[in-house]
Amino acid sequence: MYFCAMEIHQFLDATYLKTATQAGISEEESLQNVLALTKEAIQFEYKLIMIRAHYIPVVRTLLKKANSKTLIGTVIGFHEGTATVTEKLIEAQKAIDLGVDELDFVLNFKAFTQGNFSLIDHEILECTKLSLQNDRVIKWIIETAALTNEEIVVISRRIKELVLTHFKDTATQRVFVKTSTGFYLTENNVPNGATLENIQLIVANAKPLQVKAAGGVRDYQMAKKMIALGVDRIGTSSSKEICRQEITTTKNNLY
Q1: How far apart are CA 215 and CA 235, in angstroms?
Q2: Is-contact 236 218, C-beta < 8 A?
Q3: Active-site residue identified among 47, 88, 178, 240
Q4: Is residue 64 among the annotated active site residues?
Q5: Terminus of the chain with fewer CB atoms < 10 Å: N or C?
Q6: How far apart are CA 187 and CA 141, in angstroms?
Q7: Each residue of 104-158: pLDDT tens digit?
């Protein structure tokens, strides 16, 4: 275990979500990448490892063998978010049956931007219900890069109000609003992940729900800023680098 001064590792959802096709590698190479990330998660004691659902059993075996407390998360409706509610529920149940701890659902943000609030409300309520009834944490990916600031405010509030109205107060610790998939294609290289601006909007309008910053958090200083703004979890493929930078910073401050 590598100790991080502010225990930043406990904020980190170490992420590997590219399929073999997306990464341009073989299925075996993809598996080896997941196994390497799992070993890294055990070493640095990350809060969670975020992977595709079919890897859950092998990752669970490794974590159990190492007596690791690291959790396993997967994505649902990834990454477009346009799957039907029924399809998302089926996909989520399969992941639950495989032993996943946390479910990151991609909200149907296209339906939201088109004003189809009845579909959005139905999706949020049914998928949240399934997750909480199975004692799973649920995170709603709103895809901030596809939304205006006003839309970020509206959907963050909407998720909060639905959860507070329909579920017990304890659900606030088990429901997240999350920024991004990291896969959304933006024009002119505009950031497609978490920014300080959109995090401020989500924190201001989603709390007391939990907040996850995902996409674009690649160094310790940015991670610290996100946490200072009220972020409860950070999804990143740079977890090891963030921890190592904290270790270096802490050592330098001692001398």
Answers
A1: 7
A2: yes
A3: 178
A4: no
A5: C
A6: 20
A7: 999 999 999 999 999 999 999 999 999 999 999 999 999 999 999 999 999 999 9
Considering the candidates 88, 139, 160, 212, report the single residue annotated as catalytic.
Answer: 212
129 in active site:
no
Residue 178 annotated among the catalytic residues of the structure? yes
Q: What is the pLDDT of residues 149-192, one digit of tens each?
A: 999 999 999 999 999 999 988 899 999 999 999 999 888 777 78
Q: Is 181 helix (H, G, I), strand (E, B) or coil?
A: coil
In which element (H, E) is residue 86 found? helix 85-98
**Rounded mean pLDDT, 194-199:** 97
Token couple for 125: 């309520």
The residue count for the chain: 255
- Output the pLDDT for position 3: 41
pTM of the predicted structure, to 2 decimals:
0.95
Active-site hit among 88, 101, 104, 139: 104
Burial class (CB in 10 A: 0-12, 13-18, 19+), 166: middle
Amino acid at residue number 72: I
For residue 79, the 8-state DSSP code is T
CA dist 19 and 74 (Å) reads 13
Tokens, residue 226:
């996100």
Q: What is the DSSP letter of 137?
A: E
